[in-house]
Design goal:
This protein is of the alpha+beta class and about 210 residues long. The protein is about 45% helix and about 10% strand. The protein has a single domain (about 25-209), classed as Jann2411-like domain (Jann2411-like fold, Orthogonal Bundle), CATH 1.10.3300.10. It has a two-stranded antiparallel ribbon with strand order 1-2. The protein has a two-stranded antiparallel sheet with strand order 3-4. Strands 5-6 form a two-stranded antiparallel ribbon.
Amino acid sequence: MDLQSSSRQSSPAPPPAPAPGADRYPALDFANTALTMPGGVRLDLLGSPAQATSWLVDRRLAPPDAELLELCAGRLRTLRDHVRELIAARIDGGAPPASALAALNDALTLAPAVELLGWDEATGPHRVPVHPADRVADHAMARLAADAADLLTGAEADRLAGCGAGDCSRYLLRTHAARHWCSVRCGDRIRAARSYARRTQGSGARIEG
C-alpha cells in the first residue's frame, strides 16, 4: 500500500439516494460512485482513501477497522471506471473495451469472492467475510467484479439504463419502461424539461398559424 494522499478534497454537496437497483447490485452502486450533480458539480465518493474506506465498510465489503491508503483507493477508482465502461457498452449494445474486460477478469481472480462459514455461541452458524489486513482492496474488488459480471450477464441486464436527466451520469435498473431517471430530483428535472418542450412546441405552432 501507498502513503495516504491528502490532495483530494471531498465535496460538501450530499450525494443523492441510491439509484434503482443499486440496493441489490453493489456493482451498480459502485459504478455510481462517480457522479455529476445538477449544475455540473462532480462528486467522487471514492475520491480519497477515507471516502473509499467508508464506502466499503458501509457495504460490508471491508471490516470496520479497515484503512485503505491511496494506492488501494486508486485501484478501486480504476476498476470503477472500467465497470462504468462495461455497463455503458451493455446499454448501447456494442462491444466493450478490451481493457475493461481484462480489468474485470483480473479483479475476479484477485481473491476468493465468497464468505467462509463461522460459528459462535451468540449467533450460531454464520457467514464470515475474509479480509486479511493487507488484502482488503483485493477482496472488495473481487466481490464487486463478480457482482458486475452477474449484473451484466443476468436476466435484468436489459433493464440497465443511463439516467436521462441532462448531465446526470448515474446508471439504474429501470423499474418500468418509461422510467429513465435515477432519483426523484432527476425525475422532476425530466418532467419539467418535457413540460417546457411541450409549451414551446405549442407556442411555435400558434405563431406559425
